């Protein structure tokens, strides 16, 4: 499926961009990284992997809210 291949490419790009030192980033560079991460999220959301991530995060959030009571 093409969506997964593009998502993998974007994930690699995000990992490479985040490995750089924070001091070396400009505001424009940070905005580009945020845009790439948002595009990755949009591509992953409808896939089974994306749905699994949503389920895991939902369970984690539910567990945290239960622990806070």
Topology:
Elements: H1 2-18, H2 27-44, H3 48-67
Keywords: Membrane, Transmembrane, Transmembrane helix
* Count of separate DSSP helical elements: 3
- Cα-atom Rg, whole angstroms? 15 Å
For the report, how would you describe the main beta sheet? none
> In sequence order, what are the helices and strands, one letter per element?
HHH
Overall mean pLDDT: 80
Beta-strand share of residues: under 5%
The termini sit apart by 43 Å
Strand runs, count: 0
Helix content: over 70%
Shape: flat
Which secondary-structure class do the elements indicate? mainly alpha
Give the low-confidence spans.
none
How many independent structural domains? 1
Question: Which terms would index this structure?
Answer:
single chain; 69 residues; 80% helix; flat; transmembrane helix; membrane; transmembrane
Brief characterization of the structure:
The chain is an all-alpha fold and 69 residues long. The chain has helices at 2-18, 27-44, 48-67. It has one domain.
Describe the structure in your own words.
With 69 residues, the chain is mostly helical. It has one domain (2-63). The protein has helices at 2-18, 27-44, 48-67. Helix 1 (2-18) packs antiparallel against helix 2. The longest helix is centred in the last third of the chain and has 20 residues, at 48-67. The radius of gyration is 15 Å and the shape is flat. The mean pLDDT is 80. Keywords: Membrane, Transmembrane, Transmembrane helix. The chain crosses the membrane at residues 34-57.
